[in-house]
């Protein structure tokens, strides 16, 4: 009968414990995987499965789990996983922002409902574009790229060896502005045209005050907005592909510079 000492058990547990912290931190913050509609047991089970697959190929970690240094190392793993997940969330935040801006100009800002993922009120148009971005993310195998990117961090940012580079997190925060700028560029053509329609309605109201602009204005802007959205839909797929590519390139640069 095999007998194991307590030190052997702790060493074996550390092989899986440290990677699982980073992987679970990613799952709880990454797009789609962090949706509250996914049961917590499924998330934990997915994290355990990925850990079992990844952990044997990682270099050994000589850090006792029940030591004072383990607290800082555990915090490092959580920070890395959360940083990767939140960085990927920037792309979806940019898409949602574009949807909110378009919906505001179309007069659909009042049409909101509770988002099951965040439990926050979200405009209908923003949610539709967000769901479309999620489908495109899965069709581009973005979830696989994201997991692969996280696995690569175990080699570029080994557990307990290299400290987390503060400059890397600073680069991520600076890049957030560029990502949201892309979202604004997506919505800018429709916003400009709808603003032109509203200006035309304002001039029409000044020239013909007897016309009820409030009666014809909302159906007109809504109709024009829907027509413009139908023209925009074919462009969302290449836009999201470019946006996701920028995020992964950003993560790659941060990973290699850390």
TrEMBL record:
GO terms for cellular component: bacterial-type flagellum basal body; plasma membrane. Role in flagellar biosynthesis. The chain crosses the membrane at residues 12-33, 45-66, 72-95, 128-151, 171-201, 213-236. Keywords: Bacterial flagellum, Cell membrane, Cell projection, Cilium, Flagellum, Membrane, Transmembrane, Transmembrane helix. It comes from Enterobacter kobei. Pfam families: Bac_export_1 (PF01311). InterPro entries: FliR (IPR006303), T3SS_IM_R (IPR002010). Belongs to the FliR/MopE/SpaR family. GO terms for biological process: bacterial-type flagellum assembly; protein targeting. This is Flagellar biosynthetic protein FliR. It comes from the Bacteria. It is found in: Cell membrane; Bacterial flagellum basal body. It is a multi-pass membrane protein.
């Amino acid at each position: 009968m095999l007998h194991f000492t307590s030190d052997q058990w702790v060493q074996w547990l550390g092989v899986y414990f440290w990677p699982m912290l980073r992987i679970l931190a990613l799952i709880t913050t990454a797009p789609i995987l962090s949706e509250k509609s996914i049961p917590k047991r499924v998330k934990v089970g997915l994290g355990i499965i990925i850990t079992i697959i990844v952990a044997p190929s990682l270099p050994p970690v000589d850090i006792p789990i029940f030591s004072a240094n383990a607290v800082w190392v555990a915090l490092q793993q959580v920070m890395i996983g959360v940083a990767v997940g939140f960085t990927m969330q920037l792309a979806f935040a940019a898409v949602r922002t574009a949807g909110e801006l378009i919906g505001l100009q179309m007069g659909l800002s009042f049409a909101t409902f509770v988002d099951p993922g965040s439990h926050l009120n979200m405009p209908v148009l923003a949610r539709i574009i967000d769901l479309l971005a999620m489908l495109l993310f899965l069709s581009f195998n973005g979830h696989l790229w994201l997991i692969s990117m996280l696995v690569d961090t175990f080699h570029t940012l080994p557990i307990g060896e290299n400290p987390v580079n503060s400059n890397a997190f600073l680069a991520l925060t600076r890049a957030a502005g560029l990502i949201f700028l892309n979202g604004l560029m997506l919505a800018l053509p429709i916003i400009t045209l709808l603003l032109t329609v509203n200006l035309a309605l304002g001039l029409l109201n000044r020239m013909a005050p007897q016309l009820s602009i409030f009666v014809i204005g909302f159906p007109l802007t809504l109709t024009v907005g829907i027509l413009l959205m139908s023209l925009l839909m074919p462009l969302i797929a290449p836009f999201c592909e470019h946006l996701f590519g920028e995020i992964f390139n950003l993560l790659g640069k941060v990973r290699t510079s850390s």
